[in-house]
Every structure is written in C-alpha cells, then in structure tokens.
Automatic annotation (TrEMBL):
Superkingdom of origin organism: Bacteria
InterPro entries for the chain: DUF5618
Record domain DUF5618: where: 13-131
Protein name as catalogued: DUF5618 domain-containing protein
Pfam families per record: DUF5618
Amino acid sequence: MAIQNQDNLLSPAEEAARHLQNAKEILSEKAGKKDGLYADVKYVKMAASTAYSAALLILDEYLKQKEGVKFIKPKSIEDYTNRVGKYDKKRLRLLVNVYDELHIIGYYHGTRSVNTIQTGLSNVTKMLAYI
C-alpha cells in the first residue's frame, strides 16, 4: 500500500517519466533484441502500451495547463488530437506519431521492429518537455 501512496505524490511529469522508464526496462530485460528485431512480441506490446500511457499522462497535464478549470479528460484519440491541435501543431504531430508508433503498430500489430518502438519512445521523451 505504501507504493500506491507514494505514486500519488509524484508530479504528472514524474509519473509519466516512471511509465516511460518501466517501458524501457521491459524492452531491455524481457523483449530480447537481435538484428534490429525484438524476439518476444508479448513484451513489445506490454512496453508499447506502458509508454503510450505515459504519453496520455503528459497530454492530460498539458491540456489541464491550457484549459484550466474547464479541463475534462479526453475520451478518444480524436478528442486528444482536436484539443491538442488547437494549441500547438508540433505537439499534435508528436501525438499522431506516438499514437501510430506505440499504440497501433507497437501494441495492436505487435511489431518486432526495434526502430519503430525506439522512435516512439523518443517521441514520448520529447513530449515530456512540454509539462
């Protein structure tokens, strides 16, 4: 129970960074890498999902900062893209890339491509600078 209470003390940026670090650890410790491909898709999917959740935490905080008391958590990727796009096109492009690289290609399709997943992780890291 102490860990759960500790998590509540983390800032949104720290929590997102923790998710991102967990994704990297899953890949390095469990996915196995050889010749530019991951060996175990199960762990790639797990890491992609974890990293994508970091991106959503970042976007939620970004929208809270922009919208203040009017903020309501987005319910779909379309809602995220519409709202983020109102404020910053560069952030919107990162969102679209992360959605494709981690959520669709990494999680749903279960890619084994190290390059695709690493690009997605790098884009989430760039997003962290926005909060």
